[in-house]
Amino acid sequence: MTDRLTSLREAIEAVLPNVDGVLALRIGPGGISASHLFSKEHPEDLAKLALWPKEPVPDTLKIILRAHPDAKLAIVCRGCEERGIVEMFKHAQLNLDNVTLIGLQCEQAEAEFCRCAKPFTVHSKTTVGQSIKGVPDPVTEKIAAMSQPERLAFWKQEFEHCIKCYGCRTICPQCFCNVCTLEDEKWVETGRLPMANPSMYHLIRAMHMTAKCVACRECEETCPADIPLAVQFRLMARDVKELFNYEAGAVMDQKPPQLLVLEEGDYERSGLPH
Amino acid sequence: MTTEPKIIGFLCNWCSYRGADGAGMARLKYPPNIKIIRVPCSGRVSPELVLRTFREGADGVMVLGCHIGDCHYSTGNHRTAKRMPLLKKLLEYTGIDSERLYINWVSAAEGEKFASVIRDFTEKISTLPPFRETMK
Question: What's phi and psi for A24, nearest 5 deg?
Answer without folding.
Answer: -155, -175
